[in-house]
Amino acid sequence: xxxxxxxxxxxxxxxxxxxxxxxxxxxxxxxxxxxxxxxxxxxxxxxxxxxxxxxxxxxxxxxxxxxxxxxxxxxxxxxxxxxxxxxxxxxxxxxxxxxxxxxxxxxxxxxxxxxxxxxxxxxxxxxxxxxxxxxxxxxxxxxxxxxxxxxxxxxxxxxxxxxxxxxxxxxxxxxxxxxxxxxxxxxxxxxxxxxxxxxxxxxxxxxxxxxxxxxxxxxxxxxxxxxxxxxxxxxxxxxxxxxxxxxxxxxxxxxxxxxxxxxxxxxxxxxxxxxxxxxxxxxxxxxxxxxxxxxxxxxxxxxxxxxxxxxxxxxxxxxxxxxxxxxxxxxxxxxxxxxxxxxxxxxxxxxxxxxxxxxxxxxxxxxxxxxxxxxxxxxxxxxxxxxxxxxxxxxxxxxxxxxxxxxxxxxxxxxxxxxxxxxxxxxxxxxxxxxxxxxxxxxxxxxx
Length: 448
Fold this sequence. Notes:
Number of helices: 14
Strand content: 5-15%
Distance between the termini: 118 Å
Structural class: alpha/beta
Oligomer: single chain
Low-confidence stretches: 1-44
CATH class of the largest domain: Alpha Beta
CATH superfamily of the largest domain: Ribonuclease H-like superfamily/Ribonuclease H
Largest sheet: 9 strands, mixed
CATH topology of the largest domain: Nucleotidyltransferase, domain 5
Radius of gyration: 40 Å
Order of helices and strands: EEHHHHHHHHHEEEEHEHEHHEHEE
Helix content: 25-40%
Mean pLDDT: 83
Shape: elongated
CATH architecture of the largest domain: 2-Layer Sandwich
């Protein structure tokens, strides 16, 4: 509490200042905090305590540690005798801090660089510096197998910063979750997801097959013969189901979809099978509603040839297909070979096939040149009907000129059809010398 025996803000020859200090004000040399000090502060004026408090409250958010003590010292110096006590009582800044500021103003204390707040080494010591085992224990919780503790309490739980903080507290460390987060960043840790890069055992001829495919593709393109990449895209549920990704919509009005992804029997699933022309950067997609069989795959290639390929390659007499080693167009699929022979007979094309080695489907061009762009185009859009799926696929484009045509295939393709040895014997198929199981071609059969 401060009181002045003159009217506030009105000068007088002399006045008495009454000060009852609060608990948080430093009072050097006094035995208790409840005291009354009367002295002449200024000769010809009265200190407006309310104004001083208001000024400090307005400036305080913008002041740092250094500027706060310098400002307080400036105010105390302006008041004169007893100014340190007045400013300390009005602002709550300790008297010792204000005196340090006065020494800085007078040049008695070693001056700090302009950008510094404290002298080097000043302030509270970092917890990591004062707690010798903190970093070691934190590393042990993050990587329990490295520290030799496979039974760590956090081995089988989510390692959030709050949980790590609780475990460190249990070990006797005085830490908060914010400190744990800062220490993790300092130690080079970051939040990371899993990275798909481990492919397992690769075939010893994997790289040679890649080079073989590359040579075949370049050779066909030089002769202006069609080269296509084929594959089945992921099956999609038809209906008002959540589709990954986000779309711009009015704030607070997301599109409402089903909670559970259970197939709607009357709508079923869509099976997109794609054909990508490597030379022309153009694609074809047949959207099937039945099983993904070899007959469906070859019929999709047939539709591409009839609708797009034949017009673009009117002089063609060969066709090269690059495909995965498994699935409906797999290298061991007998029905795939039977249907390709029929296609060769019908189109009078010599059809060559090169399969990618097992486990290398990501190298198939159609995956990242066409299918990835289709997924981007329909992100965040529920695939509510087959018509929506066909439209979204057909409207997929890229800056490099990708164009796609899409068609709904309502035909039935039953599973489980067996191909006999006698049927295989009728094929006009020739296997390459290098990996004939992956590389082969069909010539049109002569009709009787």
